Amino acid sequence: MGNQNRALAVAGTVVLSVAALHAADWPQWQGPDRTGLSKESGLLPQWPAAGPPLLWSISSLGAGYGSMAIKDDRIFVQGSNGRQSVVYVLSRADGKNLWSKTIGSAVNNDRGPGPRGTPTVDGDFVYVLTENGDLACLKAQDGGSVWQRRAAIRKYSSHVLTAIDVNFGAIQI
Question: Could you tell me if residue 130 is inside a domain?
């Protein structure tokens, strides 16, 4: 297992063990208000020396740099499965895979492999943007496809993403 995969597995284990303890939703990048701050109360002022208890862990999500979204009893996260960019939905209680869906091709470049995004959950839908520019809206319950588009990603340099255009008929986002 490479350093990136190890780091993802360790971070996922720690975050998932803490996230499973609390009932608040975290439906998008940096939480419900996109501030990165939790409104949870009653948290321990200091962790025990051995750390928080591990409730479960998972190591089969592949490579990636994204975060996760939590809604109700589900955890939404992106990873790569070989040459595919995948969204996984896990049970918050035990980490079991409830469903997964391939969204597009995975990318491995000089900045590393796998997705860079965080799924966004809004009501009954989950929105996913892959590292290769595939944008999808899925049914949060079962991963059924509502729509999927290929975003045209324009870059002015190799390190700065400047624009994403998605054509929905007459609308440009």
Answer: yes
